[in-house]
Amino acid sequence: MTRVLAENLSGLLQTDRISIYPWTDATAVGLQVTADIVEFERNAAGTVTLSAFWNITDVANAKILATRRTTIVKDVGAKGTESYDATVAAMSAALADWSKEIADQIRVLPR
To answer: 24, 37, 45, 61: most buried, per Cβ within 10 A?
Structure first.
């Protein structure tokens, strides 16, 4: 999940300067996204829920720039309720939506 989120943010923000913690390179870190995943599962009704609390922090100034809670619900589909492929597709779509929400927040932060 961490790797996919990093790849999504890299594409959405059009940058290769995305690192996954713990940082192993000498590059200075500007912004840090931290998240606490509360729920990421499919229920018996056939919906996938991704729920998370997350922050964006200016690392150099140790200042939290944004604090959010996100809940995304995706329907697996009536025919796909028992399908792993449909579940994975719904989970992937939820993660993509969350990535876009984070990227959109980063774009509006003051520079």
So the answer is: 37
Q: How many helices (H) and strands (E) does the chain have?
A: 2, 3
Is residue 46 within 8 A of residue 75, CB to CB? The reply is: yes
- Predicted TM-score (pTM) of the model is 0.91
Question: Would you say 10 and 33 are in contact if contact means Cβ atoms under 8 Å apart?
Answer: no
- List the structure tokens of 24: 């192993």
Along the 111 residues of the chain, how does pLDDT read in single tens digits? 999 999 999 999 999 999 888 877 666 789 999 999 999 999 988 899 999 999 999 998 999 999 999 999 999 976 655 688 889 999 999 999 999 999 999 999 986
> How many of the other CB atoms lie within 10 Å of CB of 94?
21
Question: Which residues on adjacent β-strands are paired with residue 85?
Answer: none
Amino acid at 43: N
Q: How many CB atoms lie within 10 A of CB 13?
A: 16
